[in-house]
């Protein structure tokens, strides 16, 4: 068995990653496959925490949210992330993974409130911790929540799972000449506006020297290869 490059990771999953080929909602086959990938990493002895987005659910109600107060719309998005967290927890239960959902909003009948010490203890016990409701504050993205939670739980790296297998010099769909960066510095990513994560999340990670890896969750075995330190995706380093 190969030795993981990281002891504790924070996996940032977008809500869109759960849609599969559907236009919105949760695709059962897709979420099951993602959970299988997470299980492979947990079986290596890596401690895994997850921050989940809500775009797949909120997209379905987005037309109704047009013209809505921004804070209200953001709270709706946070509730969508809690729904995704529960779906992820259920899928993990089916493959024998023990997980806990912690919410930044108090919904105690549904999920535990976020408590840093508890989250770290769960990770040390080998449980997957799923963070829902972002930071609990409007005007902050789930990217920022991933950076914040990654720092709070002392993660070794933030893994951003996307639809693209890394960060490119240009849009690879429009420009076949676009090249994938193997590594980047935070300053390069910010100056070149490479859309690794939002600016707040990038700055937080840079200031705390918390590396980021961007990879495609749709590539079979990609998560495991990143955790093993192989050439997968793009690493953003201090």
From TrEMBL:
It catalyses: UMP + ATP = UDP + ADP. It comes from the Bacteria. It is found in: Cytoplasm. Pathway: Pyrimidine metabolism; CTP biosynthesis via de novo pathway; UDP from UMP (UMPK route): step 1/1. Pfam families: AA_kinase. GO terms for molecular function: UMP kinase activity. Residues 7-216 form the Aspartate/glutamate/uridylate kinase domain. CDD domains: AAK_UMPK-PyrH-Ec. Gene3D superfamilies: Acetylglutamate kinase-like. Signal peptide: none annotated. It is an enzyme of class 2 (transferase). ATP binds at residues 12-15, 55, 59, 162, 168, 171. Catalyzes the reversible phosphorylation of UMP to UDP. Homohexamer. HAMAP family: PyrH_B. This is Uridylate kinase. It comes from Methylobacillus methanolivorans.
């Amino acid at each position: 068995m190969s030795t993981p490059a990281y002891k504790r990771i924070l996996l940032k999953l977008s809500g869109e990653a759960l849609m599969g080929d559907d236009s919105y909602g949760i695709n059962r086959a897709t979420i099951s496959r993602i959970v299988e990938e997470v299980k492979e990493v947990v079986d290596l002895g890596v401690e895994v925490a997850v921050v989940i987005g809500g775009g797949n659910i909120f997209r379905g109600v987005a037309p109704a949210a047009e013209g809505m107060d921004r804070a209200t719309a953001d709270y709706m998005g946070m509730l969508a992330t809690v729904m995704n967290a529960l779906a992820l927890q259920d899928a993990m239960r089916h493959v024998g993974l023990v997980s806990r959902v912690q919410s930044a909003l108090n919904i105690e009948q549904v999920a535990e409130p976020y408590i840093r010490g508890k989250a770290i203890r769960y990770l040390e016990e080998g449980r997957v911790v799923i963070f829902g409701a972002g930071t609990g504050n409007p005007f902050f993205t789930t990217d920022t929540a991933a950076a914040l939670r990654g720092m709070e739980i002392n993660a070794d790296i933030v893994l951003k799972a996307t639809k693209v297998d890394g960060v490119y010099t240009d849009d690879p769909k429009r420009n076949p000449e676009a090249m994938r960066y193997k590594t980047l510095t935070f300053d390069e990513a910010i100056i070149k506006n490479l859309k690794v994560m939002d600016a707040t999340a990038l700055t937080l990670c840079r200031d705390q020297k918390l590396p980021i890896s961007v990879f495609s969750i749709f590539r079979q075995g990609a998560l495991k290869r990143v955790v093993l330190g192989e050439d997968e995706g793009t690493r953003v380093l201090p």
